[in-house]
Amino acid sequence: MAGTGLPGPWVIKFSRSKKREYFFNPETKESVWEAPSGSDEDQLKTYLEENPLRVRALHLLIKHKDSRRPASHRNENITITKDEAKEELETYMKRLQDGETFESLAKERSDCSSAKRGGDLGFFGRGDMQPSFEKAAFALQTDQVSDIVESESGLHIIKRVA
Ligand SMILES: Cn1nc(-c2ccccc2)cc1C(=O)N[C@H](Cc1nc2ccccc2[nH]1)C(=O)O
After folding, report:
1. How many domains does the chain have?
2. Most ligand 1 atoms within 8 A of CB, residue of 109, 112, 153, 159 to mutate
């Protein structure tokens, strides 16, 4: 894969189950834990600094009546519209900008079961989350907060923490 410092078709991926990087050859379907021979370790290090395989993020989710599952730990029947969810989420964005912590706001309001952990989803790699959420999370710098992001689950704000 170009720019990774890996030879030929080899790519680097993240194993969520083992919580570590591994190397995969899509032509031979071989997977190995250590960089294959012929790898440029410095180039690989630089590549990973610019293209993280995994990120860790907090999020605050507000579901609405058209969410994939319009229910949560805090409301067994969610009936607000997407517009009402957006307006409410904007009030949390303002409180965040006024200095309240992301964790406290997620605990107060998030419709995701991660709310009890301050919205912390832990580390995740590409392919683990819904595409719109993944795209937004991987585009953030560490400690940066997203604008409102829409997924099939509802409306989110995301803070990348690692
Ligand atoms: C992806 N995920 N991780 C957790 C989680 C993580 C750590 C501790 C507790 C729960 C919950 C979920 C999850 O899918 N929750 C859904 C809501 C939801 N939908 C999401 C879409 C993208 C990212 C996070 C999302 N969370 C729910 O509770 O209905």
Report:
1. 2
2. 112
Instruction: Establish whether this prediction's ipTM goes over 0.90.
Output: yes
Q: Please identify which of the residues 72, 114, 146, 156 carries the catalytic annotation.
A: 156
How do residues 45-56 score in pLDDT, each as one tens digit? 999 988 899 999
Residue 73 is assigned to a structural domain of this protein:
yes
Residue whose entry in the numeric block shows the structure tokens 């805090």: 74
Same domain, 154 and 81: yes
- Position 103 scores a pLDDT of 98
Q: Is residue 37 part of a domain?
A: yes
DSSP string, 123-160: EEETTSS-HHHHHHHHHSPTT-B---EEETTEEEEEEE
114 and 80 in a single domain? The answer is yes
Residue 4 lies in a domain: no
